[in-house]
Amino acid sequence: MAGEELVFKIFPRRVRELLKQAGADAREIQELRLRVEKPLTVISGGRELILTAGGRLVSSSVPELPDDLFLVERDVIEETVELMSRFSLYAAQEEIRQGFLTIQGGHRVGVAGRVLAENGSIRVMRSISFLNVRVAHEKKGCADRVMRFLYTARGHFLNTLILSPPRRGKTTLLRDIIRQASDGCRAGPGGTWIPGISVGVVDERSELGACYEGCPQNDLGLRTDVLDCCPKSQGMMMLVRSMSPELIAVDEIGGEEDARAIAYAGSCGCALAASAHAGSIEEAREKPGLGALMREGFFKRMILLDGEGRVGRVKEICDERGRRMERGESS
Where are the domains of the chain? Predict the structure, then answer.
């Protein structure tokens, strides 16, 4: 069974049958959302679709929705939670407390419901009523056209930042950059071979390596070490001190704490590859922490993904001053 298809195994039989009848293709689906007493929605190709009880996927953007929508009952949520935790919700609580669970195939299931806190920390999550199943897509080779911009003439990796709005492919692109940097790639002048380097990945939300029982489900390369479910700021410092990476990669960097850890890693001689939510370079420069790094010229390469059209389409590649080095792909 293909990696994407494994995601359907966590649903009750009647849900699987309806999705199959509707022609749902896990290779194209980005998210499946289940909310108790609400319709089951599917994000595919950047569009939101709604499942009907008759086994159809219809657009959610029309003024009037069909009368036969498939409403997610509580028992559907409960059975899905049992299946995704392999009938051991207690054993999965440590991961669920962080708001998600990684399942076989590397797919991540976000969870929400009633939270029980103690001394300011989440102790347990009960009455799970909302699920967001994010389908992992590993697209080897999607970074081919950008790799030649990410190295110096001597083959040293340049600090790189990927920017895009949500669900536009920045994690998928970062994952393939990690793999190619780790394995080695033809990115030098004239397509010369650049040997692989040691890469350390801080995978706070299990989206890059998609570790399942400690083993990455995605190919991050033969020279890559992964810190799974570890806070980015702490993980970067841990990797520098313990694993001697030449490149550190992190997904969705945020505020000033992340920025300080990135600057620390950079001062220790590590190259950085990171991603962040932003619709433009100008928008990214306004973010605390990240903006300061950009104004200092820390990121020598910035890859902006298009917010429209095909997911993962590169809009432009710029240097540290924001000067365009390469225009995006044709639509």
Answer: 5-134, 144-327
* Amino acid identity for residue 162 in this structure: I
DSSP symbol at 158: P
In DSSP terms, 275 is beta-bridged to 162
Q: Give pLDDT tens digits for 148-192.
A: 999 999 999 999 999 998 878 899 999 999 999 999 999 988 889
Rounded-to-integer distance, Cα 51 and Cα 15, Å? 10
Contact by Cβ (8 Å): 123, 116: yes
Write out the two tokens for 210. 């998609």
User: Is domain 144-327 in CATH 3.40.50.720, yes or no?
Assistant: no
Q: Nearest CA to 49 among 36, 31, 64, 35? A: 31
Cα 82 to Cα 245: distance, rounded to the nearest angstrom = 38
Give the pLDDT confidence of 65-101 residue by residue, as tens digits. Answer: 999 999 999 999 999 988 888 755 655 666 777 778 8
Fold of 5-134: Beta-Lactamase (3.30.450)
